[in-house]
Amino acid sequence: MKRAFALAMLLAAPAFAADGDRLYTEHCAACHGADRLGAIGPALLPENLGRLKKAEAARVIAEGRAATRMDGFGAKLNAEQIAALTDYVFSPPAAVPDWGMAEIEATRTVHAEPAKLDRPAFTADPLNLFTVVETGDHHVTILDGDRMEPVARFASRFALHGGAKYSPDGRFVYLASRDGWVSKYDMWTGTLLAEVRAGINTRNVAASHDGRYLAVGNVLPNTLVILDAVDLHPMDIIAVAGEKGERSRVSAVYTAPPRSSFMVALKDVPEMWELTYKDGADPVYRGFVHNYEAGMAEGLADNSRFPIRRIRLSEPLDDFFFDLPYRNAIGAARDGKSGRVVNLTTGREIATIDLPGMPHLGSGITWTYQGRPVMASPHLKEAVVSIIDMTTWKTIKRLPTLGPGFFMRGHERSPYAWIDVSLGKDKDAIQIIDTTTLEIVKTLRPRPGRTAAHVEFSRDGRFALVSIMEDQGELIVYDAASFEEIKALPMRRPSGKYNVFNKITYSSGTSH
Ligand code: HEC
Fold first, then answer.
1. Alpha carbon distance 306, 290 (integer Å)
2. SS3 10
3. What are the distances in angstroms from CA 1 to CA 9, 13, 15, 260?
4. Which atom of ligand 1 is nearest to the CA of 23?
5. Which long-range contacts (CB under 8 A, 24 or more apart) does 125-128 make?
6. Of all atoms in ligand 1, which is nearest to the CA of residue 85?
7. Contact 148, 489 (CB under 8 A)
8. Is 73 near ligand 1, meaning CB less than 6 Å away?
9. Is residue 6 predicted with pLDDT exceeding 50?
10. Which residues, other chains included, contact 18 with Cβ-Cβ below 8 Å and sequence gap of 6+?
11. Segments making up each domain of the chain, as ranges
12. What distance in angstroms lies between residue 43's CA and the mean position of ligand 1's atoms?
């Protein structure tokens, strides 16, 4: 009896994975898609679940998520079955799903044409609006930056990330979701205009400064997708790969307005790309990267409608910062100890910056200090802000903070830079640096014990908005000169907030 049981267990063990597959099809596929690409529920692939810990995923499967359509399965399934399902959703699919022109086009919906208006349907300054992403219940609030009152609130796709991008006039906002959806909203009426799923797992979207194109950087599949900014139709899909054809994830795509180009950071190969959207582009941009549908097999033909320049690097760089004329790109080396300066005119690395402790350059800002341009960056692994002279690329100061931080913000009309220290134990603090003395002049604790992060200034630099990043969180408005709290608005885990004016003018105090 006992031996038979042991044998059965032994035989059952290899079937464990298959069990996850079967259970998934039976209980989950209806909402999360037979191929795990998502449907009513989000995609359940390892890349998409990246930020969710395995134990947390198991808890969601057992207990569900309150006030969503995700019910708990704890009563229907036993612990082993839940473990098998958790392993299953964290394992890669047998084949990388296809996501080409046909698949993308099939997901595209134009919901409405923008109404013929000269100004918003409300009385707020259209250039002082904020888009606030509330990740707690997947909503977006449009905030009037003068009165600090919401003017619209609408449901977004699941897990927006990578920041809001605007059309040059500030009327339209483009939002990308973790699962690859790009949505276009009319800020003036709070209407969803169009949507398309440009990838299965997306890093971010960039909008060209002339308002014509969007670039979507994907992790799954390894593509860069160019969309028409008007109706979101896919114009080009570029397979992202190194010179020898080795595939790479995109880590981010940025707009470089003075160059009329998109800069693309590649995660897995030592290159960065510059894709020009200038008509009749300069022959310096040699188009050798091309259409996804044609595949890599055809070789590197010069047939993309958007010529791409391949900038060779000594090693893969991530998380870029650009100087304001977009003459240089500053990227973080993988070892987390240094930054590299890449001159974009020559395509050469010109300096190494001493930046130990994993700089978060994507959140870096610049200002003028004693007549020289400086950049400042928080660090993900060290309680310090590095301040670097951008003419010599030497570190002027390593300013100790209460903890490692994530976001940093300044404004042309404010003498202060604000940082969070949310990656350390003092998660509830915000520190303020005087940009003329390079000293911390104030530490705020907006709500003791609750995580404070992501500061954004109003158009005129008079107010600084801070998120209390908790499910039942708040958005707190500070007077940016006296550091007094002016107002608090309840929000569901507010994360990023993006001021129209500061974004469309590429303010030196904010990331782009
Ligand atoms: C009735 C539809 C439905 C069914 C059936 C369903 N889910 Fe979900 N699931 C959802 C929705 C909707 C969400 C998003 C909840 C939210 O807003 O946070 C979700 C979220 C999740 C998440 C969290 C994803 C993340 O990134 O935060 C996991 C994991 C998950 N589901 C696994 C499963 C598994 C495994 C099954 C089968 C046992 C299953 N779900 C069945 C609708 C469903």
1. 8
2. helix
3. 13, 19, 22, 75
4. 38
5. 125/459, 126/170, 126/171, 126/187, 126/188, 126/500, 127/170, 127/459, 127/500, 127/501, 127/504, 128/458, 128/459, 128/460, 128/499, 128/500, 128/501
6. 35
7. yes
8. yes
9. no
10. none
11. 14-89
12. 9
How far away, in angstroms, is 265 Cα from ligand 1 center?
Answer: 31
Give distance in angstroms: CA of 150 to centre of ligand 1: 30
Mean pLDDT in residue range 179-192:
95
Q: Which residue do the tokens 């395509």 mark? A: 347
The preferred substitution site among 31, 45, 73, 135 for testing ligand 1, maximizing ligand atoms within 8 Å of CB, is 31
Six-digit token pair at 447? 């709500």
Q: Per residue in 338-350, pLDDT tens?
A: 999 999 999 999 9
The answer to whether the beta carbons of residues 442 and 434 sit under 8 Å apart is no
- pLDDT for 284: 56
- Average pLDDT score over the chain: 90
As a whole number, mean pLDDT of residues 115-135 equals 93
Please spell the DSSP secondary structure of 343-382, one letter per residue. ETTTTEEEEEEE--S-B-GGG-EEEEETTEEEEEEEBSSS
Best CA proximity match to 101, nearest among 296, 238, 241: 238
Residue to probe by mutation, ligand 1, list 23, 26, 32, 52, most atoms within 8 Å of CB: 32
Please work out whether the CB of residue 31 comes within 6 Å of at least one atom of ligand 1. yes
**At CA 140, angle to CA 134 and CA 141, rounded to 5?**
100
Nearest to 204 by CA among 155, 249, 152: 249
Report yes or no: 497 and 142 within 8 Å, Cβ to Cβ.
no
- Note the CATH architecture for domain 14-89: Orthogonal Bundle (1.10)
Give the number of other CB atoms < 10 A from CB of residue 365. 24
Task: Report residue 184 as tokens.
Answer: 């276009």
Query: What residues have CB less than 8 Å from 449, skipping those under 6 apart?
Result: 428
**Distance (Å) from CA 71 to ligand 1 centroid:** 8
Closest CA to 237 of 183, 185, 200: 200
Beta bridge partners of 310: 273
Amino acid identity of residue 286, one-letter, is R
Report which of residues 114 and 12 the model is more confident about.
114
- Residue 457: what residue type? F
What is the CA(195)–ligand 1 centre distance, in A? 22
Contact (Cβ atoms closer than 8 angstroms) between residue 364 and residue 408: yes
Residue type, 93: P
pLDDT of residue 125: 94
